[in-house]
Structure formats: C-alpha cells, structure tokens
Amino acid sequence: MIRNAAGREVPQVVNGQARTPYAGPDGVQPVGRKHSAPIRSCSAYPSNGDKRAPTLLEAIARSGLQSGGTVSTHHHFRNGDFVAEQVFAAAAELGLRNLVWLPSAVFPCHESLIPYIESGVIAGIEGSLNGPLGDFASQGRLPRTAVLRSHGCRCRALQDGDLEVDLAVIGAPTCDPFGNMTGARGPSACGVLGFAMADAQHASHVIALTDNLEPFPCAPWQIPGNDVDQVVVTDRIGDPAQIVSGTTLVTSSPERLRIAENTAQFALATGILRDGWSFQAGAGGVSLAFTVIARELMWERNIRARFIRGGSNSHLVSMLEEGQADYLLDGQTFDLEGVRSAGANPRHIMTSPFTSYNYHTKGNFASMVDLAVLGATEVDLNFNANVVTHSDGRLMHGIGGWQDALFSQCTVLAVPTLRSRTPIIRRELTTFCGPGELVDAVVTDRGIAINPRREDLIASATDSGIELTSLESLMAGAERLSEGPPKPADQTGDMVGLVTWVDGSALDIICQTN
Amino acid sequence: MESGLAAGGLAVSSESLKGDCRVSILPGDGIRVRSSVQAMYGDSIHELAAQSWESFGAPKIRIEIDDGGALPCVLRARIEAALAEHTRQNLPVLPLPCVCPQRDRRRRTRLYIPAHTPRLFLNASVSDADMVVFDLEDAVPSSQKAGARSLVRHVVPTIDWGKTEPAVRINSGIAGQADLAATCQSGVHLYLIPKVESAEDVARAADVLDQFESLALLMPLIESALGVENAFEIVRASPRIAAVSLGIEDLVLDLGAQRTASQVETAYARGRLVNAARAAGVQPLASVFPRFDNPEDVKAYAASARQMGYEGIGCIHPSQVRPAHQALAPSSDEVAWAKSVTARGQADEAASALKGAMVDVPVFRRALRILQEAGGQR
Fold first, then answer.
1. pLDDT digits (tens, 9 = 90+) for B322-337
2. Residue B158 near chain A (CB below 8 Å)
3. Residue B361 contacts residue B331 (beta carbons within 8 Å)
4. pLDDT, mean of residues A98-122
5. pLDDT tens digits, residue range A413-442?
C-alpha cells in the first residue's frame, strides 16, 4: 500500500495489474501511442455483407472468447437490459469460466447475474457498479477486486490499452446484416449508443445483438458495421418500459426543491446563468427540478443556452424545441421524449464518452460546460466528495460520469444537509471519489458554501446579495440535529473495490462490509 | 425502498419508518436496537434509550426499537411516550427554551403537518411557509395522540425554524388543555384552538398558558354558525390572539349548506370574520386550500382571499407555499401606484389628488402597506 496525493492508502497492484497512485486532479501525464484493435481483412467476412450468426451461443463460440477473458456490455437499456443476461447464459452453456465483465454501468435488473458469479462464470466486474450488485461486491462476494471507472475513464482505458476487451456485445435497437446500427429506432429504441462506441473501435471482437434487423443499409447509423464482426438476431434485447421512463416527473420533495432553487439562484447571482450559457444536469430529482426552475428564470430574462448536456429528458427536449437552447449534446437518453427527439432533431446531437469525457484526448466537452449540477453521498470540509458508498461503507451508487463532469467551468454539488439522520458534510470521507479542487460550490437545503478558491464566485454572489455559508457551519447545523457525527465506517475489511481517477490512477479503495 | 440490514439480520423497512422509529415495551429486560443507520448511530441510539429508561426509574422492562434513521429528538420523543404510557408516569420536564413570539409577524402561509409524521418535519422547516402548524387534532388518529404530543415537545425546540413560526393545532375541549400543558414549554409560538364558539373557549386556553407562564399566542378557529355570530367577542377575548380563521368543512356542515367552488355558501361567514378581525386588530387568515396539484388554483384562491382582506391562507402541502406567496404579493400595478402615491411625500392634513383620485391619509397608509408587502417578497 502507498499513500496517494489524496492522502488515501492504495495498493500498487490490483488484480495482477500495476496501478499508479493518484497524483492530483491533473493526473499522470500519459506516454506512448493509443491502443488499437487487431487488424482484420475483408477476406475474412462475407463479401455480400451478411455477418449474421445463427445464435448468440454460436457467435460467442466463433469469437474465440476464452475462460478468463473480458466481456463488455452497455447500459443503453438501463433497467430493461436483456443483453448481459443472454451473453452470460450463452457463456455458461459454452463452459466458459472466470470471465471479467466490463459493463458501462449496471442497474438493479442485473441482480439476475449473481448466479453466474456464484457459479464461477463471472469472476469480476469492472465498470460503474451500484445497487444490488454493488452491495454484493461490498460483501466481498466477487472473487476479483471490482474496479470502478467513470464513463470517461472506461473510454480512456480502452483507448490507452489498460483495459482490453476480448468480446464486446452491443445491443442494437435497429441493425442491418452488415452491423450498421442505431439506437434511435426499433421496439427497443434507447436513443443514443455512445457508450458502446469505444468498445466498437477497440474490442478484439464485436457482436451486434438486435431484435430489429432491417436490410442494408441501416441509415443513418450511429455505429458503423465496419467495426462489427458478427450480427445476431434475438427475440428481445430490452424491455421498453424499463429502458426509459414514460414521464420524467419533477420531485415534490420540498427539501429537493429547495436545493434546486438555491442552485438556480446561485447560478443567476454569479452570472453563470446568462445568455449563451451551457449546463449539464442529470435525471435525478434535484437536477430535474433545477432544470425546471432554470427554464423559468431563462424565460423571464429572455436568456438562451448555447448548448445543454444530456442525459436527455422531456424538459431538455422542450428547451431545444422551444428555442431555449441551440443544441442538446446527449450522452444517454432518459425518457421517451428524449428518444423521439434524438431520432428526429438534427440539433439533438449524439455524443460519446470520447467526445465528452475522455481525459486523454485533445480537450473534451465536459470542461467546456459552464455549470454542472451533480450529487454526492458525502462532502468533506475541503470540498472533496464521495459518490459511490454510503457512510456505512456499502457500495451503493454508480460512479457514472460524475468524476468526468467535475471538470466543468463551475461544478456544484447539490446535496441535502442530512440523509435521514446522517449528515452529508463531514470531516473525513468514507470513500474519496473526487478532489475538492474541482468542486466550486456545495448547495444545500440550508445554504450555499462556495469553495474559497473561487474568489470570483464569492465576490459576484456577495454583490448580488446571496447569503453564503461555510461547510463548517452547514456541518455544525446538521450535527446539532443528528447529535454528533456518524461513527466512521469500519474500513478494516479486505479490499473489495478500487476507485480509479479519470487518468486510471488509484484514488481510493472500498473495503468489505458485513 | 432500500432496507437497512440490522443487527440480527432482520431487515428494517425504512420506507414505513423513514425518519421515524417504532418503540415497543415488552416483558423482560435489555434494550434492542435495529436501525437503518445501525453502523453510524446504533450505539448512540442504545445510549439514548438507556438514558430515557433510567429517567423513568429503570423499570423492569425490555425496550425494542426499530429505527428508520430518526433524529435523536424523534427517538427521545417516541421512547419517552412509550415509557410514560407503560409506567403511567408524566412526561419528564424539559429545559425551557427562550421564546419570544411576535404578534404582528407575516402569516401569508401556514403549512399544516400531522404531528405524528416525523419524516415531514425537516421538509416543513425549509418550506418557506411563514408558519408551520403541527396538527394534533384531526390529522392524528386517536391511538397516536400521545406520541404526537411527545414529538411536538421534543422537535419544536430542536429544529432551526429560521423565519418560520412554529405553531400547534391542539384538540378541542379537555384534550386541548392537556395538549397545551404538555407542549407550552417547548418553544411553540402560537396555538390554533379549534371549534371555538365563545370568548370562554379562548379564555380557558389562555388560562392554561398563564398558569405555565408561556408567552404563546393564540389563533381561534371558528367552525360553527354560533362561532361566526360570536366572532367579534371571540377575537377580543385575549391579548394573546394574533390571528383568526374559519374551519370551512365543519362550518358548511353546521350551516346545512353544500361546498361549492365559488364559496358562496360561506360568503357571509368570511365577510363577518374579516370584519370582526379588523375591528379587533387581529390578522384575518383564510382557511385551508385543499388541493395542491395545480399552482394556478392555489394562486386564484389566495388572490381572492387577499381581495377580501385576508392576509394568508392555510396550506396542506409545501408546493402551495410559493404560488400562495406570489398571489398574496402586491401586483406590479399596485406597487407602481403605491410608489406614485408615496413619492409625493407625507400626506398630512390636507387631502390631495393623484390622477383624478383623492389621496388622503388612509390611502397613503394603504400605499405604504403595499410597499411593505412588496419589499418582503423574495
């Protein structure tokens, strides 16, 4: 173990792979050239462009996947994903064991994969891990250490070669026999396929799994068939009811509304919410409420956004269609309106973690966004934050694109002061996920604390008459109600997970909880 | 719908108990805690329970606590209520908080929350409502009244209410006097007394407060035809009275009328009440608006109340607060008018004219009040 720049003890080798300790938000400077997929020849593929295999089992057998190999799937179908389950059912039937699963994210539906872990088909998971599988990993029941990578870090790892994908199975809502595919159409339409783009380009073998085959060409395609080895038609790849929510309801929780309102007031007072601005807000309760309140303020003041970053939803789509925003740069689609717009509106742009989040590239979109409104499970007095574990040490939330989005021009952590009895602001984080250097303000139901590094924001907020507070004062208020800080989580258990920073360095570890 | 894994491996459903706890007194001994925040606060809950148990003379019982992340003030209230019931002892005396209720503060919105539902308490404190009313009366099932009373005692003095006035609606009759006695030393600023029909009803409540040397204010709720007829006597019954309102549901029943959207059936009562209140120098507050799905409806209700002279409305959901405040604020036309009136300087003895209308002292005062109301708007 070695102490990294965040002051956390991290291992130098994880799952047999050497790990550089975290060296600060700017990361370790990369060297060398990008990693590439093996070169293939047209002669190995049917000249009529028909790459169909009869079954997924057959296709996986042909892919050359061996026991101990790595298999990736993606979270385009969110909680309605039927792809991962079919992949591992076929792998089990083929007698493959000790596979490492590389999901871009997992959802509660993936609890169905636990039997494959228990039977030894899956030995480890690397990706964004949460919910039932997160809890499962927390209990030390995964044979290999889980490696948590943000969306951008996953993409970077594929590009840099520190994560090699032997087989990528991409769920394709509409696909042709050549492998051109799109997420915008079909019974399992999910909007955009951005998370699979890196895998399509870097995996050793790529299978497109579709429930909606149409004759060549499937146009416009989001992923070209030139990256695809085989195409498999199956009954269903996703449950439309679970892929996207029909409606994106705004929270009625007064606490969350208050946080959202305070965030909007902060954006207005600091001059961030101005004509031509840009912002990123997710589909969580606070983010959605923030979007709704920001829209009201924008109408009142005749303000337009140049671009907004999705996760798209009905509110962002309305902004685009009603002229409140010029462009919607979308990484994933959260509701049916988002799917409809992604398929129809030329200003609704599909982005991928490459364009938006990858840290080892010539700039990315995330840092260009004027305001990112993010959540956190814990924040310490130096604005460092946790987003993956609860204060009892359990791994409960996906890391998602959270670390990547921290790089925005102004990052706000919009959090309640208390979650039931547990204060969110505390002296020491259970898990260190993001450095305070990148967090510009913490906005709560009981006040706004701006990072002292951002003297400019403090000055403009104060000039506008916004009352500011400090993290110390917010913590004291919460601890008065909770009658003291929570007992720190027991961190003496075995390491079950590694949290990486965007550059792939070792940021913190997650210990087994009982 | 996450559930906490508790000691002993039993899951505590934190949905039903969110922010709350269940305390069971059983034969036997010892204290058993199961909590959704076990790892963080399990020990602290145990300690808190042991202290309460000792303060009741360490009776020979077993205490079982199922906790969904309740704040310590909620835990303490629930444990004390259970111990008091079991041992038939009185609730312990609490340290007296320093409270200075303000008679003339703004009461545009008063948000009712059932006093037996702790998960709503913190939300209410950040709702921006001018007043939060812990309801001990109709919203609380009779089996939960004692627990609710205990919660008020512990929660009101613990939460930072900011600019919100913490109030309690007591029960009517004898139960109400017991509510007052149990809670009036807990920092409650104002009590709503339901079903008031006469000045004596108010005097009885004031007597209890006098007895405990509480400075709390009173707000009678008039809910019957007789009460409406006695409105002026009622609002003059005590200097503690800061505001008055109608209980529309009961009143309509008593009148033998039917509720309509136009509220025509209570036109007389509403007119009578605002007149009596103004005559006695007491704030007239409109009754509760029962729907919260459409902010425009809330605005329309509040605006019509304001036209009649009412200064605030009752709310049953925090989402009503914002539209109510918007509707109760003076319009931009009104503000412009008020500015033009006051810009001419003090209206002294002589009446002057503005845009063909007379501006005398009452008009000038009305303009000042509009500017004051507008100034307080966020």
1. 999 999 998 888 888 8
2. yes
3. no
4. 96
5. 999 999 999 999 999 999 999 999 999 999
The Cα of B352 is separated from the nearest Cα of chain A by a number of Å equal to: 37
3-state secondary structure B323-350: HHHHHHCCCHHHHHHHHHHHCCCCCCCC
Contact A254 B40 (CB under 8 A): no
Say what the ipTM of the complex is: 0.88
- Is B208 in the A-facing interface, judged by CB distances under 8 Å? no
Neighbours of B311 (CB within 10 A): 19
Cα–Cα distance, A278 to A261 (Å, whole number): 18
- pLDDT at res. B354: 63
How far apart are the C-alpha atoms of A80 and A82, rounded to whole Å? Answer: 6
The two beta strands, B357-359 and B352-354, are: antiparallel
Q: Which residues of B touch A392 (CB under 8 A)?
A: 37-40
Verify whether the Cβ–Cβ distance A392 to B44 is below 8 Å.
Answer: no
Find the residue in B nearest to A514 (Cα): B5
Distance CA A289, CA A281 (A): 10
Q: Where are the alpha helices (DSSP H) in B88-172?
A: 121-125, 145-155
Dihedral (Cα; B232, B238, B239, B242), 10-degree rounding: -60
Contact A383, A292 (CB under 8 A): no
* A481 and A418 Cβ atoms separated by less than 8 Å: yes
Omega within 30 of 0 (cis) for the link into A217 = yes
Query: B23 CB near a chain A CB, below 8 Å?
Result: no
Torsion of CA A318, A319, A324, A330, to 10 degrees: -140
